[in-house]
Amino acid sequence: MKNIAIFASGSGTNAENIARIFNEGSRLRVAVVLTNRRNAGVIERMKPLGVPVLYVPNSVWDNDPAEVVRILREYNTDIVVLAGFMHYVSPEIIAAYQGRIMNIHPSLLPAYGGKGMYGHYVHEAVVAAGEKESGVTVHLVTDEMDKGEIILQERLTLAENETPESLEAKIHPIEYDIYPRAIVRLLERLNGGDLRDNSVAVVSTEKSELSDDTVKAAKAEPSADADEEKTVAQSWAEALGVPLPAEPAMPPIPEQPLAEQPASVEASGNVQAPSALNAQHPDHPMPPTYMLWAILATVMCCLVTGIVAIVFASQVSNKYYAGDFEGAERASRKAQIWIIASIVAGVIFTTLYMPLSMLF
Ligand code: GAR
Description:
single chain; elongated; alpha/beta; eight-stranded mixed β-sheet; binds glycinamide ribonucleotide; 8 strands; 45% helix
């Protein structure tokens, strides 16, 4: 049994996909997920799969990386898979798992890699530059950000009217296909050959070599529909006798960003389900003027606060899916304030409208 540890910060669709493909019963499995976000979507995604999720605060990643290594060893980790992990991985962790930590990046590295290039920002930069192609890269993690050896890379051609959002929507399914294959490839290499029969595996960046050699070796008897076109992940799931999600593209789980909790490492069963953000009640007094002006001000206030709330609310998901979690948290707080302000203003308007309509 080979154990995979996943580091994830966000929604966790890649983590879920990997855990579904390589789950208990196969020769690979996701043994544990480590997240630096107490309310990361990945926590909910792992619950039905029975994969433990540990919340490891940023302070531990930064100041006590030996603790992370200890956890990885506790789970007999063979390889570490970064799936939307938006925090610095310290050299101590990289050294402890030299050549065994991989990352997925939503561009054709080395293009659009490095500082500030993650998630949505990558797609924005690619579209703004008028690129004709983009893609997905799975690479080894080294001390230099996004510069490690490339394990697998897949391209896609941009449409004429491509937007960052449409590009991101095309990138995700490629990620769900490419990452499981890259994991198998790295494990094969570390194993000195095929995972199933120890024959020598060809390791290259050509997609076709893994798809043919590995899958054929993995299958004891080719099925009747062997000629049918399959992804390697699907073939592996079939060969290893594990279920494959019928539809790999998963809907995002909305986030409720919370402030960072005190330093601790907790198993998912013990992670306190974060309650909704503590609402910050706005101090939004009505203007103390004549009644008519008050109503007018209330109507104006409602419209303006409502629009502002909508702007901030739209920023929450945009920033979240761009990986800017702090930005999403700030936007959610502001949206809450403005939503409450709109409601308060609306209630006051409704309350005043009745007596006023009787007067005039
Ligand atoms: C993925 O698109 C991944 O390529 C990207 O974050 C997203 C995570 O999505 N990673 C990076 O940008 C790393 N530099 P997920 O949480 O749904 O798997």
